[in-house]
Known about the structure:
Blueprint: E1 3-12, E2 22-30, E3 34-38, H1 45-52, E4 60-65, E5 68-69, H2 75-81, E6 82-85, H3 97-102, H4 117-129, H5 145-159, E7 163-167, H6 175-190, E8 194-198, H7 202-208, E9 211-216, E10 219-225, H8 226-229, H9 232-239, E11 243-248, E12 251-256
Amino acid sequence: MSDAYRLHSVAFTYPLASFPAIDHLSLSIPEGRTTALLGPNGAGKSTLMDILLRWKKPDSGTVLLFGKPLEQYSKIELGQSVALVPQEESSRFAFNVLEYVLFGRSPYLHQLATPSAEDIKLSIEAIREVGLGQCVNRSVTTLSGGEYQLLLLARALAQGARLLLLDEPTSSLDPGNTAMVVRILKKLASRGITLFFTTHDPSIAAELAQHVAMLRDSTLLYSGETAEALTPELLSELYHTPMQTFTHAGRLLVGRK
């Protein structure tokens, strides 16, 4: 099995910080599978995501994306390979839903070029896939928090990348929208798209991921198959509190003991 990302001894320390945010991390993210990244607040998950997106440059170590050094990708190549679904964005301009999702087609457009009929078609398909087909002409400023999260997912789908990075994709959603996002991500995984997402909910990891990586205190605690990772012992060590797992209706659920 090939790797989407492969990190070797990656380290990163913020200016003036006493301790590294990422400390000699080696990790493989398998291609064509879904990987969940678990860890408590401050473990280094957001910093790792920034490194994978090339928003931060490691102080040391190497990062390969589909076997090629990450720093060798052009901005366009990177945009065609990796799409981000952020947890939130700081501002919402008065674009309508279609205009906003069309930004996902930017890596395929020459500077100052207007979207083609194909770009519009792909964007509308992405909007419909996340259940916002009735909102194509609505201003994004009128969307609810849950609808806006689905909009961010639609934009990433329109980008057509081989790999999706998702930051807490269900954290702000009600149960109905959470179920919808889970269904969409499972559908994408069935197409062979590589998914890598952070979450504070191990139960979501159990439902979606075949592979789990655990970060604690800026280092890798464990990386492996989901069933082997989501044990009471490892979860308790990860979160510094007693955890338990149980099965209900065929689903693995995780909670505090």
